[in-house]
Amino acid sequence: MRHSQLFTKTRRDAPSDEEAKNAQLLIRAGYVHKEMAGVYSYLPLGLRTLNNIVEVIRQEMNAVGGQELVMSALQDRALWSRTDRWDDNKVDNWFKTEFKSGGETGLAITHEEPLTRIMTDHISSYRDLPVSAYQFQNKFRNEMRAKSGIMRGKEFLMKDLYSFSKDDEEHTQVYTGIREAYIKVFERLGLGELTYPTFASGGIFSPFSEEFQTISEAGEDTIYVHEGKRIAVNKEVYGDENLAKLGLTKEELVEKKAIEVGNIFNLGTRFSEPLNLMYTAEDGSKKPVVMGSYGIGPSRVMGTIVETLSDEKGIVWPEAVAPFRFHLISLDGGDTTIASYAQDLYRELPMNSVLFDDRDVRAGEKFADSDLMGIPWRLIVGKDTLASGTVELVNRATGEVQKLTKEEILVF
RNA sequence: CGGGGUGUCGUAUACCGGUAGUACGCUUGCUUUGGGAGCAAGAUGACGGAGUUCGAUUCUCCGCACCCCGACCA
């Protein structure tokens, strides 16, 4: 894409009403726009980035047998009443509204209920199990107080996968596979080093749930990390009794602030029983399906990457998520020979992999914008290029500079 | 939801009970062109409503919005 045609502009100053680094940088670089407290729109660069995160997650969910679907955001009051999650005294962050034709609806905070009901149409035998289904969808939560930029909003993108198994043993197998997939996801997204599977409070069906926590001072959670075992314990379950169950001692754990980028739960039959999701077992008996839920917030992951990997100059995207792989900068200063060299290179590189800064602005502004936007590889075409026949390739993360010929760049 | 705070050109900020200033951005022209250029000329602003006052952007009240701390976060 040509920068001259990109409608978003960068800014020097962060807005005064944003304190979170992720929001400051993403707004300055033109990735997102704040609509209201805790509500953000994703602009072209931001959407490309978010879509890349989504694609990594999608590939890993598909690899463990997840089947993608999309459910409605609008929820059926009667359905949620059956699991006792409609009442404001039970769940207090619904956005509720009314149909003109009468009756109430709400915007989905999560999707256990609708998917469980869908599955009652399709699961009837042990032969139908296990099955996993997932979606990417905006969730709505009427938070009292939004904070932390795009990391905790009232509307946010969520990947939610739900597993359906015939018994605890089968569920454990499925769960373990998805857990491994989560580890791969965070590795691919550039957060592997900083992200720890973390024991947290488990709810009704298991002593613990697992969260994926990324170490960051911007985090809202406090966790205790075992660096050798690469696991952690959330403060909410950090007690001697629990640590003993986990085979850990306080001496080997280090306290850290962290961002919860994913979580996985054993749901047992919490939803299948009230919603009557039953199957016929081998022996002919009817049994409730055993469920699990597995969430990752791609928009929160995007904020987390900015929080943890950016530097003084701006954002630093890992290659897997960057909106473009190359940022091609033409320092022609009106010199048509240099400009056309840059333009030829732009045309020869893979379509969609390059942001081409063809604007008629000074070098300093192009460099500053490029640092801010965080595209991994900067290609600089200038006077030297014509003399030496090479183009400068600069790594955004390390600043390392290489001089490559056009042929070398095309196979880079 | 409890407590605290803030609303000034597009953005960031300053000052003030009496003509609202600066920087960046924007428009026009000339120069400039490897780290956010220079000169010149422009355009653009007081959250909404009531009140106090000769006069309110400034003071008071109400509303709305936003921020921060806490609580909450399936």
Describe the structure.
This protein is an alpha+beta fold and 412 residues long. It folds into two domains: 3-309, Bira Bifunctional Protein, Domain 2 (BirA Bifunctional Protein, domain 2, 2-Layer Sandwich); 326-410, 3-Layer(aba) Sandwich (Rossmann fold). Helix content is 29%, strand content 30%. The chain is built from eleven helices and 21 strands. It has helices at 21-28, 44-63, 77-82, 112-120, 168-188, 240-246, 298-309, 336-348, 363-373, 383-388, 406-410, and strands at 32-36, 39-42, 66-68, 74-76, 95-98, 104-107, 131-140, 155-165, 195-201, 208-215, 221-226, 231-234, 254-268, 278-280, 286-288, 290-296, 326-330, 354-357, 377-381, 390-395, 401-405. The strands form five sheets. Strands 9-10-13-11-12 form a five-stranded mixed barrel. It has a five-stranded mixed β-sheet with strand order 18-17-19-20-21, with helices on both faces. Helix 1 crosses helix 7, helix 2 packs antiparallel against helix 5 and helix 2 packs across helix 7 (298-309). It starts with 20 loop residues before the first helix and ends with a helix. The model has no long low-confidence stretch (mean pLDDT 95). The structure holds one RNA strand of 74 nucleotides.
Helix content: 25-40%
Question: Within the largest sheet, what's the order of strands?
Answer: 9-10-13-11-12
Number of helices: 11
CATH H-tier superfamily of the largest domain: Bira Bifunctional Protein, Domain 2
**Radius of gyration from CA coordinates:** 24 Å
State the separation between the terminal residues, measured CA to CA: 19 Å
Summary, kept brief:
The chain has 412 residues and is α+β, with helices and mostly antiparallel strands.
